[in-house]
Design a protein that fits this description.
Helices cover about 20% and strands about 30% of the residues. It has about 90 residues and is an alpha+beta fold. The chain has a single domain, classed as Ubiquitin-like (UB roll) (Roll). The protein has a five-stranded mixed sheet, covered by helices on one side. Strands 3-4 form a two-stranded antiparallel ribbon. A hairpin with a 2-residue loop joins strand 5 and strand 6. The longest helix has 11 residues, at about 30-40.
Length: about 90
């Protein structure tokens, strides 16, 4: 399945400045695996070991995967997967 992955500003230097990249995969986990294979620098930003970092939110067509099937959420051709790092501050 070909999907579009939206890359947040703080990570664009790792994707050659691209705001969106194409990826393949039937699930969110497979899509992320494809993206980090092509852009290895993203792995450290997205994962702590083999676990997704707790401050990375992932949306599939504007729905938070935590309320779906998490990284096992099935993606269909043409969907948009957005990577959203949590923002802290005050």
């Amino acid at each position: 399945m070909s999907v579009t992955v939206e890359i947040p500003s703080p990570m664009r230097d790792l994707t050659d400045g691209q705001t969106r990249v194409a990826a393949e995969g039937a699930t969110v986990a497979a899509v992320l695996a494809d993206v980090v294979t092509r852009y290895p620098g993203l792995r450290a930003k997205l994962y702590d070991g083999d676990k997704l970092r707790h401050y990375i939110n992932i949306l599939v067509n504007d729905e938070d995967v935590r309320y779906l099937d998490d990284l096992d959420t099935v993606v269909n051709d043409g969907v948009v997967v957005a990577l959203i790092p949590a923002v802290a501050g005050g």
